[in-house]
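Subject: Predicted fold for ABC-2 family transporter, 248 residues

User T.R. writes:
Posting the sequence so we have a shared reference for the thread.
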Amino acid sequence: MTLEFKLQAWAIILNSLKTAWRIKKIFFNVISLPALILLVYYALVFNYAKNIGIPLMLVLMGILGIGLSWLAVVCQRLILVSDFTAYNSFDFRMGVRAAKFLVMIFQVCIVVWLVEGVVFMSMLFMFNKYFPFNGLEDINYWIKSFSQVIGGYALARLSLVFPATAIDKKVSLKWSWVVTRGNGLNMFAIVGLFPAFFDFIITSLWRENATDVENVLLSIISFFVIAIEVFALSLTYREFERFYSDSQ
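User M.O. replies:
I've generated the structure tokens; pasting them so everyone works from the same file.
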């Protein structure tokens, strides 16, 4: 399969911001309450984690994962499914979609972690073998950073499985890798650099002695930012889908 077009990464990023603004009322109604509930739930689980035991902790974190997956699926369906109403569609099928989405997240994370691990260990071995010196730990940071960039590239190439799963398409990691061939850097800009920019801004706003209100507000803002990033990925998927539909 040969890709014949190039994604316009910055156009998609800008379009995701415009889309969030255009549907801001629906966007706020859909995101705010679930984000607050998930935030409170996470805070309670985190505070009582030491007293509930590992088995129950895993169950509670699994519920949190399903909740976050549900929210991601809703955001993607807002973009990709016409006349989609989030709460009217909150039924058993949404729970199944969220579970499938969470499974897909685990699959992608395993691949990304393996890629990062292989790159990190390979470079560490190379430097230790060919450039042996006592201060090897000084370059560990740069080796780790490089391996994370490669892992981020792999994540970008595999990330189309998320919006596809949200709209009930049966896809695989291999499918996403093949479809994004020739657009790896553009995908990395959308999936890697765009979130990194917002992460930098939000991280710079955190402070050590922040009040609980400030922490809650920043956490809710983080949910909104993640939702916008999901919008960008959904718009990216729509560009691929449109191209292949037109080419058939």
